[in-house]
Write a structure and sequence with these properties.
Length: 354
């Protein structure tokens, strides 16, 4: 194998990145399920949420505050919109980083309509003063607006209409307990199984008027890293290929050829992921090797390797983070079609057996 057969990988426009790009934002609105029963997978969250919403509707009140945690692209925004739709309520969408001052939050809260759903994405990134204001708003539907500064400052209480806060976070563990405790319901979103992603793909294909065979959908699902956003994005790229290079129908063969062109392999790894693995195996015998050294070897920033490539490699059981550095697993050797050196590789100390 030639270790230099690909140029330095870049993270820009990553086809298998979970964050939304411009095109995603433009088309996602059309692909979002509008009702709970259209929402694929996440059975437990869906069932529990269904009860919370039905009970609130029966009481004729607003639903309890809901916290949704999970990786990007798993459907948190979609679910928040469904909550509003199921409650027949309007929705306001904002995010933690957009609320840096308590006053920003007060302005939003005081303009909410009764029963409105406030979706607060990346709630863990809100400023401290805004967070503290939110405690009282969630619990008592009231905020204290501070007027003036220093010893002369006074707090003017402001009544709020009852509303439902839907907070979304990629890391529930980062939320301070007083905030976490104020949510009546917490839903943990899991990565989707391939069969669920196939359903997402079939549904999106119908909406996009794309002809797809079951095996074509399965091929795309298997490379979508458990994430509907990635499944929808790969579907659009494979559709392009099918329309230009084939007769427009997505068969397994068309999906395979297309994803080869886009350099997304059978397990959903892209060039960056493979570059990290190749460096780890080819240059360092499978490790252990320090993160900084590995990053230099692939020509990327340390943070890029750690935050962009590694989480998926670890999740897939291809790479392990150990106190002595990064180590490739036997599955990594197998994935690249290589044989580990005798004895498990230099420095592995039999971590994964002989
Ligand atoms: N369960 C699902 N069924 C069908 N489509 C889904 C599902 N979950 C997500 N999607 C689709 O995936 C895309 C991304 O979903 P969404 O924007 O809700 O993710 P998110 O978790 O809010 O992501 P982020 O954290 O980046 O904001 C949307 O186009 C949506 O249609």
């Amino acid at each position: 194998m030639n270790w230099d057969d690909e140029s330095v990988p870049t993270t820009a426009d990553r086809l298998v990145g979970a964050a939304a790009d411009g095109e995603d934002q433009a088309v996602e609105a059309a692909l979002r399920p509008k009702a709970l029963e259209e929402f694929v997978g996440q059975e437990r969250v869906r069932e529990q949420l269904d009860l919370v919403l039905k009970a609130a509707r029966r009481r004729g009140g607003t639903a309890d505050h809901v916290l949704l945690s999970g990786a990007p692209g798993l459907g948190k925004t979609t679910l928040s919109m469904i909550i509003a739709a199921e409650m027949g309520a309007p929705i306001r969408i904002t995010s933690g980083p957009a609320i840096q001052h308590a006053g920003d939050l007060a302005a939003i809260l005081s303009s909410l309509a009764e029963g409105e759903v406030l979706f607060l994405d990346e709630i863990h990134r809100m400023s401290r003063p805004a967070e503290e204001m939110l405690y009282m708003a969630m619990e008592d539907f009231r905020v204290d607006v501070i007027v003036g500064k220093g010893p002369g400052a006074t707090a003017i209480p402001l009544e709020l209409p009852p509303f439902t806060l839907v907070g979304a976070t990629t890391r529930a563990g980062l939320l301070p307990p007083p905030l976490r405790d104020r949510f009546g319901f917490t839903g943990h979103m899991e990565f989707y199984a391939p069969a669920e992603l196939e359903r997402v793909i079939h549904r999106s294909a119908r909406l996009l008027d794309v002809d797809i065979e079951s095996e074509g959908a399965a091929e795309i699902a298997g490379r979508s890293r458990g994430t509907p956003r990635i499944a929808n994005r790969l579907l659009r790229r494979v559709r392009d290929f099918a329309q230009v290079k084939a007769d427009g129908v997505i068969t397994r063969e068309v999906a395979e050829r297309a994803l080869e062109v886009y350099e997304v392999d059978g397990r959903g790894l892209d060039r960056l992921d493979r570059a990290v693995l190749r460096a780890l195996l080819g240059l360092f015998g499978g490790g252990p090797v320090g993160l900084s050294t590995l990053a230099v070897a692939v020509g990327e920033e340390r943070e890029t390797v750690e935050e962009v490539a590694e989480p998926f490699l670890v999740r897939e059981g291809l790479l392990a983070r150990t106190p002595r550095g990064r180590v490739a697993t036997p599955a990594a050797w197998a994935h690249l079609g290589l044989v580990p050196p005798q004895g498990g590789g230099p420095g592995q100390d039999g971590l994964f057996g002989p």
